[in-house]
């Protein structure tokens, strides 16, 4: 007689699979539509729900997991055929000008490979309103289509094209589910993949967005049957077991939530007493067991056909059964009177349907069994005793059992952890019943292991009838680890500044696991991102230094070892890669330029600024300095110089600057200072072509930067005749004046400036006091030479009355001393008294004071006669005659004017006292003539007549 077995083994001999594939339209070779809108500045976070969420979905959904169950990595071992696997994408749109507020992308899933199905349905995404900005809308959802060939090397992919709109700077969250096809456990390869792509199926700006399910862990629905036949008994018994679940997956024993290291299994043992006819008919009982491994109820239609040979002896149907997750036995019994020795067999069919598409059979399983008639004779078996024994295998696994409502344990205390066996007995029962054992499976610590919770029940009738039923719950545990990337940066972002850092995570095989970003805004110095649902492994995290520039990680890449120990236990459930990024400090340098070139070495520059001690260095032969101090703080810095003697700072560029990170990371600030060397002037003084250190000729230098009144220098005692004015430094480009002072009457002076003859000017015009000047400027670093040769009388220059008012001994000027120092009249240095007496008409001037009065237009009694034309004429006539006596050159015009002047003064009786030709004089002709003659003499005295 066949035994009842609840099995998860798809390959068992009695199971025959019929897979129904949904056929959808095959997309032609892709051509990007003209209106395709590729996403720009959209960050995609693609996630799926882990199979360890611990529960089942309502029959019609919603198929959305708790937030903590979503991961960007492997979705784990818990998902099985006909599950609707929740997926989610979070769309974060930037604020850049080019950010697309309406854009398209594809949801893609592996569909078929080598004739085996993968995912066969992608639902229409919906906006998760509670997590999305109000502007988020799904404008269009394309029909599900096939792409042949598929992406990633698959034969066929299925996809939908989605158009989304959202405002800049907002987040949009979309949810949908994907169905694991009937037969998807046969899909070749290690994993089934879901992807996001651009509309042309490239990753483009979306990046390699992928979540996967390990194919080897996908379990199909199961169907089995048992057939038994009894003849000659008053009673028959059927023993069944119902296990929920038949697969217990701890998909993440590292999860710190409740249930990570323990979960429950319910085993229901049911016994049914059947009335039998001991007079002859055969009582035939079939048990159809449906195992739903999905996380939601399914619809199942059952048909059971019993045969005697090829003759149908019974047909049993159950339709529209809602089968919840777990194993479920269905018992059917009937009587049959065979005509001879029966050959009993049974064929059963289970059609599976999706409650969301109830008219379509998505897959069919069949099972067969045979039975030999048991002849019990006068066997009554009115009562029975049911026993049960249970145990567990697998490293680190144990279980405990709560006290049952029926029967009692034998040698076991309810609630104790054990590996078994745990024995139980019902005692004597006389009617149908059941007992449910609630078992808690324990995992000792986070680990990857597998085992089996085995449960065998035995029914023994009072007259020896036996029935057995077994159940196995396969147990597997997984470890999913978390990797946190922590990022530290200096507090340098201000205002609207932001910085995004990109990271790449790879496993020990160098396969790309994920790409993530961390964005900082003003004031933020630490942020992190956590990758969840990762397989235990050694991970290498690399910061993309091209995108993080100018920030530089201290160590890159970082390696975090989250692999398992050799015994399968987790050495760590989480790890952290902490990147501390610094900015390359700014640097400072100085460059010296001199005019003229060649003086760049030896200049001292000093650097000052926030957080540093003043650093001073001197320029090298190239005029350059690189400061050793690194500029690590933001703020204003200055570079100053110590100006060398003889130079002026004429230009400074970049010597006050502000460091602003991160923009100035690694930048070198250059201060360039130009210094112009001052010039000098020297006078080479000769007399009659030779240097004469016995003569006292005085020169005065005036101009910008010199003392008030200028600098004087004298030839007296100067053997080389060179006057340098004490080495006075002159500013290039500025105008300076050099004057020879008090050149005596009768002398002439000859000047050259830089080798070129020049004519000096009289600075005292309309007077000529004997001073001669030139204006000049010097070039940077130049020493300009001016040569001055004074020619002694006779034949020299005349002087105006003002000259003779000072060149005498009766006024307070120093000219008398100058004349004395230079040998007086004997050497051509004449004073007024040296040329007296001089007659003015009939008036003879024979003393210094009278001469000064007349020169000053004052009568000899001391009365001022400035407006009297006679005194005007007498003043110029006296000066002209004094000039001629001192050796000044003359000419006929001058001589005639002198003669005319004397004659006029005689005609008016000029004696130097009283008024003669005042403005109101009656002698208008004489006044006019006096003025005219005086004007001619004035021209002579100013060296303008001859």
Strand percentage: over 45%
Q: Give the total of beta strands.
A: 61
CATH class of the largest domain: Mainly Beta
Our measurement of the CA-to-CA distance between the termini, rounded to an integer number of angstroms, reads 161 Å
Name some characteristics of this structure.
rod-shaped; Immunoglobulin-like; 8% helix; 61 strands; 946 residues; mainly beta; single chain; eight-stranded mixed beta sheet; 46% strand; disordered N terminus
How does this model look, in words?
- With 946 residues, the chain is mostly beta strands.
- It folds into 6 domains: 31-217, Sandwich (Immunoglobulin-like); 222-477, Immunoglobulin-like; 481-583, Immunoglobulin-like (Sandwich), CATH 2.60.40; 587-660, Immunoglobulin-like (Sandwich), CATH 2.60.40.10; 680-791, Immunoglobulin-like; 827-941, no CATH class.
- Helices cover 8% and strands 46% of the residues.
- It has 7 helices and 61 strands.
- The longest helix has 18 residues, at 924-941.
- It is rod-shaped and about 195 Å long.
- The model is unreliable at 1-32 (pLDDT under 50).
What's this, in brief?
The protein has 946 residues and is mainly β.
Task: Furnish the topology, listing elements before pairings.
Blueprint: E1 4-6, E2 16-19, E3 26-27, E4 42-49, E5 70-71, E6 84-93, E7 102-113, E8 116-117, E9 119-122, E10 126-127, E11 137-141, E12 145-147, E13 156-165, E14 171-180, E15 191-197, E16 209-214, E17 222-233, E18 235-244, E19 247-250, E20 262-275, E21 282-292, E22 298-308, E23 311-323, E24 326-336, E25 344-354, E26 357-371, E27 373-379, E28 384-392, E29 397-401, E30 408-410, E31 422-429, E32 433-443, E33 449-461, E34 466-477, E35 481-488, E36 498-506, E37 512-521, E38 526-534, E39 538-543, H1 545-548, E40 551-553, E41 558-561, E42 574-583, E43 587-595, E44 604-608, E45 615-618, E46 624-626, E47 635-642, E48 647-653, E49 656-659, E50 668-677, E51 680-687, E52 698-702, E53 711-714, E54 722-723, E55 736-741, E56 748-753, E57 756-758, E58 772-776, E59 783-791, H2 801-806, H3 815-821, E60 838-840, E61 843-845, H4 848-855, H5 869-885, H6 892-907, H7 924-941
Parallel strand pairs: 1-34, 3-12, 17-27, 19-34, 35-42, 43-50, 51-59
Antiparallel strand pairs: 2-26, 4-5, 4-6, 6-14, 7-8, 7-13, 7-15, 9-14, 10-14, 11-13, 12-13, 15-16, 17-21, 18-20, 20-32, 21-24, 22-23, 22-25, 25-26, 28-31, 28-33, 29-32, 30-31, 33-34, 35-38, 36-37, 36-39, 39-41, 40-42, 43-46, 44-45, 44-47, 47-49, 48-50, 51-54, 52-53, 52-55, 55-58, 56-57, 56-59, ...
